[in-house]
């Protein structure tokens, strides 16, 4: 630093006040402005020197509010008042600090002339310094000069609003704004700070700062600047946002609101940045455009506030915008909680335009189960039903009815207890017969868009066990089965899929009615087969189509033959094999799809009796091998149950289909000398079916290697799997086969003990009856009966079955107990008595 020599003669011009001597001036000039001094860092600026009478004798600072006391001495008002207060509190006498004379009065007289002189002096110095500062605020100046000039701007702006006005008047704002693009981080940071002080409480300055692309530049610091730059930038932006006319301009900068929203919710930025970003956003809410942007970027509260508290036009605008947003599930819940009731009320009582806006917003919110349930509590169902069913001059246009139908479909998909939610004063519910009839009528008399959504409503209602029966009863009473099946052939995929899903849901309750309807128009059955045959992965529609056909009565030979005629079994079996081998992957729909396909294929096994054509089909596709392989699909209980049942049906045909083994020619010697002959044993024959068997031709379980796999299923946790497997194994013990050999086969496959364990477990009555029947057959072998007679668990289980089983079970148990000598066998005694 260096000092400019002071012209002493200039000090006395136009002043009646004695100046300080040169030495005094050099030590007091340029102490901090905000404290009444000039900073020594500005000694190199041309300024007027300070005069001694400008300084308060007490605090040695330039006086802002000079007052004269009784002794004639002048002080800063605040300083002398402080002295008076200290004297009063300590009990000291009042003494003038300058004259040392005792004071009798504390009266203060403003020194207006001196104050004006000081103000004029300060303004002249400020103007001179600002002029020099402006010359330093260029890219050619050194970093040190620029920072020094900016520091002075900050200092002078802190003095008063009029000082900030001077900064604008001398044109410094544009110079400082240009420095925001300076290569020096320190300069950029100081420029941001300087602009913040320049902008404080001065709207004209704020307008000048916001000129051009300055706001865009400031916003860039929020995203790319260092921490100190971010702090200064967000603080400056907050200061600018205090001027409402600038709110829209700030919000119009691309990304500004998004960045601010991110900063306000940041977990890593410092608290100052987070706080300033939050307060800036609060200021920007004064502009509706900004509120919409905030909502788009996840800050919904301002929009919801306007929706709840704004004027009718504002509510309409906010509701309309809400309907256009893509909301996360959490936000949907928030909106439903805070604004659901308001939107429902607008939908009920608003004008056409307001209702449209509310419907679109509710459509968004209702698409998540949790928020949909909140809307149900807000009373959305009654006005929705009213909108859908109203006809005449008051009815909604079809495009809005479509929105209402979509909302209803969304709400129903939430899984609420709709059978308990009243829709009107008559306590009708969504599953009441009249309501369902009206829905079915609408489905048949509207366009594809509404048809699709209303079909989805019925899909949702039939998915629940508590409401499906009510819907089934209403469909039956309305005679709508045929019309619903027609949608299977709809050209619109969404309509077709909704129809198939609905029919799949009701098929367990209406299998016969649906079969009758399909027999009336086989083309609809063919359409389902085409859906299944689609090769684009596995869809929900395909799974539903397979399930629907599978639920049709399995012994309906007319439908089975039609499926055969359409080539359905070839397609379906190919699909089963591909899924089994992993060649088709279908995500969450692969299991229900496979279950449906296997059930459809099993239809063939229910109509084998005396039908060569169907038997030929079973042979062609080698169903015994297929279902034997499917038994190993652990985790898919339905597939295992259906496969075991199909094997049971196939095995029952084995006795009839086994080829009789021709007796060997005894030869001449045997005919002359019978004593030389031996009993011939057939070679290559099945010992159980007493003929030549194969898995493909006669569906033999032994030849198909199915016995061991069925026995493995006896250990399954699902009693339905166990029952189906035991039923299939029981075909080896029936009257029309060699029972003894059947028991031997089970012994060799280590299947007797698992059957005995099933008996002892006594899981269900049906399973116990089947187990008792099988055990009775096994116990006909004396060696086994003798061994089992010592098994207390088996005997106890048979006794329990004899005591507590139903009529048939008791009959079977009685015979079994006789085999192990637990009951007397009177039949032998009676036969002897009869012979006598």
Automatic annotation (TrEMBL):
GO MF annotation terms: ubiquitin-protein transferase activity
Ranges where the U-box domain occurs: 49-128
Coiled-coil segments on the chain, per record: none
Pfam families according to UniProt: U-box
Signal peptide boundaries: none
GO biological process, one term: protein ubiquitination
Name this protein carries in UniProt: U-box domain-containing protein
Species whose genome carries this gene: Zizania palustris
Classification lineage: Eukaryota, Viridiplantae, Streptophyta, Embryophyta, Tracheophyta
